Give the backbone structure.
Amino acid sequence: MSDEEFWAEQYPDKKIPGSAQPEEGKCGAKVKSKELKELGITRYCFKTAGMGTPHLGEGKCKWHLGNTLNHVRAGVQIQMTKELQTLTERLGEPEPMGPPEVEAYQLASKMKAWTLILEEKMSELNGILEVTDKAGVEHVRALIEVMERAWERYQGALEFMLKYNLHERIVALEERQANLIGAAFMSIILSQDMKLSEAQINTARTMFSASMSEMSNDLEPSWAQVIDSDVVE
């Protein structure tokens, strides 16, 4: 005999409360009932998760302590985690990695951009100390924690770049790229198959140098714009 049938025998005119198992999107707390306890039946609250609380859609409902500080904090954290998962899915497949030095610079640039966004968000929260709503307090606290971590990690990134002289290594990468282009060009004009005279070779060198100067911006690597900008200080 199922719990529902057993309940129907004992209380034919009364609907059995809750659900047999915790359901997704529902409160899921154990229903406390004198009748259920006497019959030895365990049922679970099937009201909407977070109903009547600041964290609607997550956690316990208001009838099962959903408005207490611990449940509010837990509900807000779950909501933030899901938002981050959604953002991660939107990013899609990662792009191929470039030179480690370049990746470090770009990562530091993103860290600073993220820090500035958080600081702007904090500036919007005027009267932060007067917030008394539990959900508001937890949102502010979570934002402060995230911003403090962002500061620490950005500082760590800057210390890493200074320690390993990343700017000098980036310059070396650019010089190497230019040298490879020059070496390829010279190997062509000096080839015996070209049969160029000394005067023609000198003219080609001069024209090549002038063309490289004119095309310098177009030849600049895409990551150079990030490195040379004011994003990374």
